[in-house]
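Can't attach files on this board, so I'm pasting raw text. These are the components:
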Amino acid sequence: MLDNNPPAVRLEHVVKTYRAGAVEVAAVRDISLEIPACCFAAIIGPSGSGKTTLLNLIGCIDAPDNGRVEVNGQDVGRLSDNALADFRARHIGFIFQSFSLVPVLSAYENVEYPLLLIGVPAAERRRRTAAMLEAVGLARQAKQLPNELSGGQKQRVAIARALVKQPDIVLADEPTANLDTGNGAAIIALMRRMQTELRTTFIFSTHDPQLMSHAELSFPIRDGMLVPHEAEVPA
Amino acid sequence: MLMKIAFRNILRNRRRSFMTGSAIAVSAVALLVFGGFITYIFTAFETGLVRNIGHLTVFRSGYFLFGSGNPAAYGIDDYDKVMALIGNDPVLRPMLRVMTPTQSLVGIAGNFSGGTDAAKTFFGTGLVVADRQKMREWNEYGAGQPVVPDLRMSAAAPQRGLVGLGMARILGLCGPLHVVGCPSPPVREATKVPGAAAAPDLVDLAHSELGTNAHPAQEQPRIDLLGATANGAPNVVSMEVAGVDQQGVKELDDNYVAMPLALAQQLVYGRGEHKVTGIVLQLQRTGQIAAARSRLAVLIAQHHLPLEVHDFAELTPFYVQVVRLFSMIFLFLTVIMGVIVLFAVVNTMTMNVVERTNEIGTIRAMGVRRNGIRAQFVLEGWLLGAIAATIGVLIAFAVIPAINHGGLNWTPPGNSGSVPFRLAAPASRLALLAGTWGGLVLVATFAALLPANRAARLPVVDALRHV
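---
Top answer:
Structure tokens for the assembled complex are below.
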């Protein structure tokens, strides 16, 4: 199935170096990879290995110094800043390690926000938001502000927010890092279920063995480079 | 959603928003109170002037620049025909409230009655008493003091006039007029005040002109007024002094004499043609000055009349100076308040941007454009400014009536006595109200622009990394 679909992400010789004063840090060094559509893929590696940078490049919120990034068939290097913002709004959902909900908006409003950005009509917006909150089990917490929710609930809201616009790709940067084991497992199960139901490409970075074990594809990375592919983890 | 986020973020940092909002609200109150104060000064001053000298005065050409030294030489010929021309004009007639002739004159005033022997130069005005009474009722802005009918001069007493308090003091009239707090001149061996050198001649001339050797016993004191007629011949009239009319400026007060027009004309023109130096026009509203003046210019040109027209501001440079002075003070205050608001809002919004850097990165990652971020923070600045300025306006609406009913008194510029302290109500000065509210909101919005631009320029990944 994976081989027959066009890739959701294609990276060709991508290089990204950060500069802190006179010091240069090579975060990504000549990485090329393809991630098929509708798969549950993991970028795995220790802290500082370049996982987040790689996700940022795929998520079009950072630009490579060299190389080509293609997302959903689009060479994102050719897009202007506004076009990139629009591209992200329509095609990419983000789940952050620290949840990153808008603190002054309720759970419902946080989930509804991405739909406003792409101009979904009000009635449709209400329907999809309510359905998504129901799907992540937070229908009763819809009116609560983020500071009234637990960590696990916040991450559920973040997942709902990422998925409500039915994006082609969802990027999750260490989504279980700030959760306890029980909540982490629940979030992994939820992401897996949503990915299967919505047939969305999920790409997440992690060094959580529990989460790694659920990946269909894994890309081990160390010191900014992909290490030889050790194993394709079965779903 | 932008408005919802803006409003909730203002509430989220209540203390900070309160402090910044307080600066804006206090600025609004200060500007409206001070604006109300100077508005009241302007309108009260204007009301006083318009009551005394009308809106416009028609003079013979050249009088404005050269006539005050020799008013008799600048009389308007056939002034009754000129007044008829103006009064019958279909454009001017609806605008006119009062039209009255006036005669300016200079000369020497002397008091030689009851053992007093004093004389001095005077600046006199001949006026039509009934017209002047009506002029004193003009009150377009409601800023004038209530008019108490002044019956001391009337058409029934054609030789009765008023003098300034200073003139009364110098001529030794305070005692006979029973003026409280007005000292009599010191008794000297040979009383010689400025102009007194002419006194013996003046006495002789007065007695010969009036056919009497001494003023008969009377209730009101009399003074003799010596002037030169338009032909250059000396002339003298006797005026019964009905009381004092204190002027706000000492130099004027020391020289002021008001008398019925006929008496002034008798002194200036003698048996010749009686003219006037000015035709005073009081309009219904000050806003009609430009239209009335324009129409007068047309009439003067059409009839080839050697006349010129001046408004009350041109005739009273002090008024213009007061307006400019207070306007400059108001401008200075406005700039100070604007700068305070600017820095307060910049500081608040900058702190908001720093605190919400991660949030900015998140919503940028979700697909919000740079302009969306900029709009969000500018909207917050606008909303903070709008709420605070509105509160300030409401406070001013409560404070100003309280001040007006506080029983305070003050002496405005040009006034001779204290009057109740009043502030113009904000509702009566919509331009001030709108300008204050709009100006403060504009400054708050502009102040938010700088931090908003900074927020919009943040690289997404840097913003997301911010802790």
